[in-house]
Every structure is written in structure tokens, then in C-alpha cells.
């Protein structure tokens, strides 16, 4: 198929399967969660943030072309920053702080849902084991991220008195980083997926990544919304300090 047809197929996968369609996000953005449920989301999502630079380092280690490495390494800088309190991971921790979560608990990962851990690890493994083309294609969910980030920031600010604009600063940076990263990855995929087999493989990679994101929200929904069955050892909202409102 032509590059334009492949792009249309990739965009159709996002339209059908991206996690903006998950009911948990409708609840989160619509103000229908309580503070404890928002805490559970932020704590689990931290694991995804923590694993993104690990996944990008695994990807970087496999790139032979210095020019491509130069572009890709920026993703690690975006998440890690150039100093201890800079970058996306530090900004995510400012969100969990603002929500009143204990930093040590968040960073330790001990209260995570097992499915969060499994999904994040599956993403790292996918990038390590599949072809470079599939690994790059698996980042293409970011094509669809700006819309959901816009909805999230507007919805959370309008609906939760415990969420401030500063607490959501993580998403300000993502609003320009995500389109830049996604457009680069899309251009790479469209230029390198030439055979039908490669084109099918990049579509499967994007479906896989949508599944990673979707399964994390399924687990949150099951544990904290309906039927509210958090697995043993998972975060329990009342277990964290109530005094620190944002
Ligand atoms: O808030 C979101 O809905 C969302 C989605 C995604 C995504 O689509 O994978 C990423 C992010 N955020 C994000 O913040 C981020 O750093 C990121 C990196 C990647 C990736 O696959 O390399 N996806 C995402």
C-alpha cells in the first residue's frame, strides 16, 4: 500500500483503540473520580513514566545510525532532564506530591497494580526484541496524545479542587514534545515500512501499544471503580496522608 494508505490505516487504529476511548479516562476527565481514585491513577501512571526512558534506552542501544540516535536520545533527556529536579519524571513526581501521595511510596513501586507493572515491562520487552521498525512504530500512540492531554488538563482543572495548573505542568511540556516525537516517528515508519509484511508489522506494533495503555486503565477501573477489587498489596487510598491537599 502507499505511504498515505499506511498512514490512514495507522490513524484508524488510533481512532478505534487509543486509550482516550477508555471509560476510566471519561471518569477522570469528567470529574467523576474522588481524590483517592485520582491518586491511584497518578501512582500507577508513574510506573509508565519511569519505564519510558528505559524503553528509549533499549531502543537507542539498537540504533546503528548516529543521526537517528541523535534525534532519539532527546526523548531520554526530556524525561530525565539535565539535573535532579528537571525533566518529565521529576514533573510527574510534582503531580503525585500535589495529590498528597508519599514520594517514597510512589518511587518504590510497591503499591502498584500488578497489571501496570506487567504492561510497562511488556512495552520495554517489545522494543528490545522486535525489529527497530516495529520498536519505533510502537511509539506512534503519541500521535493521538495531544488531544487527550488537552481534554485531561481542561477537565481536571475544571472539575477537581485538589488539582492545580502547576500540578499538571507535566502535560504542558508533553503538548509540544509529543507531536514532535510522533511526527518524527511517523515519517520514519512511512519511509521504512515498504513491504506488505513490514506494513502489517508496524500496524500490529501500534495495536500492541494501544493494548499496553488500555490494559493499564482496565486494571485501574477494576481495582478502584468497579467492582473495586484492588489486588493484595496494591495502593489503598485511605492509606496515604490526608493532610496534604494541593
Ligand atoms: O498522557 C497520555 O495519555 C500519554 C500517552 C502516551 C502514549 O500515547 O503512549 C505517552 C504519554 N502520555 C507520555 O507522557 C509520554 O511521555 C509518552 C512516551 C511514549 C512513548 O511511547 O514513547 N508514550 C507516551
UniProtKB/TrEMBL annotation:
GO terms for molecular function: pyrroloquinoline-quinone synthase activity. It comes from Lysobacter firmicutimachus. Signal peptide: none annotated. Pathway: Cofactor biosynthesis; pyrroloquinoline quinone biosynthesis. Residues 8-218 form the Thiaminase-2/PQQC domain. Its EC number is 1.3.3.11. HAMAP family: PQQ_syn_PqqC. It catalyses: 6-(2-amino-2-carboxyethyl)-7,8-dioxo-1,2,3,4,7,8-hexahydroquinoline-2,4-dicarboxylate + 3 O2 = pyrroloquinoline quinone + 2 H2O2 + 2 H2O + H(+). One of its GO terms (biological process) is pyrroloquinoline quinone biosynthetic process. Keywords: Oxidoreductase, PQQ biosynthesis. The keyword Oxidoreductase applies. This is Pyrroloquinoline-quinone synthase. Ring cyclization and eight-electron oxidation of 3a-(2-amino-2-carboxyethyl)-4,5-dioxo-4,5,6,7,8,9-hexahydroquinoline-7,9-dicarboxylic-acid to PQQ.
Amino acid at each position: 500500500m502507499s505511504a498515505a494508505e499506511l498512514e490512514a490505516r495507522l490513524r484508524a487504529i488510533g481512532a478505534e483503540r487509543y486509550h482516550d476511548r477508555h471509560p476510566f479516562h471519561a471518569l477522570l476527565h469528567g470529574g467523576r473520580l474522588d481524590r483517592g481514585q485520582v491518586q491511584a491513577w497518578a501512582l500507577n501512571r508513574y510506573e509508565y513514566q519511569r519505564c519510558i526512558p528505559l524503553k528509549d534506552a533499549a531502543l537507542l542501544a539498537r540504533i546503528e545510525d548516529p543521526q537517528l540516535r541523535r534525534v532519539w536520545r532527546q526523548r531520554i533527556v526530556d524525561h530525565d532532564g539535565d539535573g535532579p529536579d528537571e525533566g518529565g519524571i521529576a514533573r510527574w513526581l510534582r503531580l503525585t506530591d500535589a495529590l498528597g501521595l508519599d514520594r517514597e511510596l510512589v518511587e518504590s513501586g510497591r503499591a502498584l497494580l500488578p497489571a501496570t507493572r506487567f504492561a510497562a515491562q511488556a512495552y520495554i520487552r517489545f522494543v528490545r526484541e522486535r525489529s527497530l521498525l516495529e520498536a519505533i512504530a510502537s511509539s506512534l500512540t503519541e500521535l493521538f496524545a495531544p488531544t487527550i492531554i488537552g481534554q485531561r488538563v481542561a477537565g481536571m482543572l475544571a472539575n477537581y479542587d485538589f488539582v492545580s495548573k502547576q500540578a499538571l505542568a507535566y502535560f504542558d511540556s508533553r503538548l509540544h514534545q509529543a507531536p514532535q516525537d510522533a511526527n518524527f516517528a511517523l515519517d520514519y515508519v512511512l519511509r521504512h515500512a515498504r513491504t506488505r509484511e513490514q506494513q502489517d508489522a508496524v500496524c500490529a506494533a501500534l495495536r500492541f501499544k494501544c493494548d499496553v495503555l488500555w490494559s493499564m486503565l482496565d486494571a485501574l477501573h477494576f481495582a478502584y471503580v468497579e467492582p473495586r477489587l484492588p489486588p493484595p498489596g496494591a495502593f489503598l487510598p485511605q492509606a496515604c496522608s490526608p493532610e496534604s491537599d494541593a
